[in-house]
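The data are quoted verbatim here:
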Amino acid sequence: MLKLFGVLIAFAALLGGVNNVALAHGEKKGSNAPVVKEQTDWGVAGDAANVIRTVDVSMGDDMQFQPGKLEVKQGETIRFRVKNTGKLLHEFVIGTQAENAKHAELMLKFPGMEHDEPYMTHVDPGKTGEIVWTFNKAGEFEFACLIAGHFQAGMVGSITVAAK
């Protein structure tokens, strides 16, 4: 009986951990938390004071980004101003192809999951979100909407970061 109780506690902890994963991203809208500057394979959160240029991106219910391809230079800090022209919630997430695909699979399992990372923003219909990002690594990266079904429908764009 004690062994069964231990198994039940372990199972409950596992379920609690799964729920924590689904909620771990938190609510970004209106968050006053400081931006965490954690190095990723695709760059690091940028400082608004260092923005070189602003890139306007629109996204809509046709599951497309405009523009769908971006080019930046290694070392550039870019302000992405992302407008949702649709009637559905969309998001803009910068990452590697592998990271975005992995996260999109997680979003299929936990469709209500929200994000609070400096390389992603949820954007309500008719609203605009913003990301300031420093591309300190050269390579091929992407931006995508990872909301369940959107990524799978092809809502992905590319970012080429040219080496200095």
